[in-house]
Amino acid sequence: MLNSREFTVDQRLLSIRNTYVLKNRLGEQLGFVKQEFVSWGPHFWLEDNSGTRLGEIDGKVVTVHHEYAIKDADGQVRGRVKKKILRLFGSEWWMEDVDGREIARIRGNIVHHTYDIVAPDKTTIAKVHLNWATIKDEYCVEIVKQGFDSLLVLGYAIAMDHVEHSGRSQVGTGARALGKLLRI
Questions:
Q1: Domain boundaries, the chain
Q2: Do residues 55 and 41 make contact, with C-beta atoms less than 8 angstroms apart?
Q3: Which tens digits make up the pLDDT trace of 137-159?
């Protein structure tokens, strides 16, 4: 599943916990990202369709800024994504490798919900954007740079969605979406 270069990350409308469905560009389901019901800090895990864990996304509880460790199936940290606390406009995220070296900056347009993950040499690693044509959150993720860790890119997309939309409740999101459907 993580060998794919293009993903669609769909958030389920009426779920008890944050649940995302991962699909390939043809719309075939590849697996899920699920959030723990009860945990000390935000904790997500990726699994394929058979329920095999492929990785985890662990948010730090006590930190100056939002920080998420991206771990593989064995629990080994592959990298971290962090969000700058104060920024005049928009938000600023970056990725670090296991040694704490910056490996990418996330540049985005908060109004259009489009984000580019850019290497220190200014080459594009991946693109993430919100699909506006849906009633639920749906992110399209395209990994441009060959060999870059897709788990890190997916981890960023989930962490960003969780942080940037933390005020919404799943029931409220589902009710708003249902309202939109009924008005159409």
A1: 6-183
A2: no
A3: 688 999 999 999 999 999 998 88
The CA angle 69-15-33, to the nearest 5 degrees, is 30
- Name the CA radius of gyration of the chain, rounded: 16
| CATH code for the part of the protein at 6-183 | 3.20.90.10
pLDDT band at 124 (very low <50, low <70, confident <90, very high): very high
Q: What is the DSSP string of 105-157?
A: EEEEETTTTEEEEE-TTS-EEEEEEE-TTSSS-EEEEEE-STT--HHHHHHHH
Q: Does residue 32 sit in helix, strand or coil?
A: strand
How does 62-74 read in b/e, with b if 16+ C-beta sit within 10 Å?
Answer: eeeebbbbbbbee
Q: Per-residue pLDDT tens for 30-78?
A: 999 998 776 677 889 999 999 999 999 998 876 667 899 999 999 999 9
- Cβ pair 59, 45 in contact under 8 A: no
What is the distance between the alpha carbons of residues 50 and 92, in angstroms, rounded to a whole number? 35
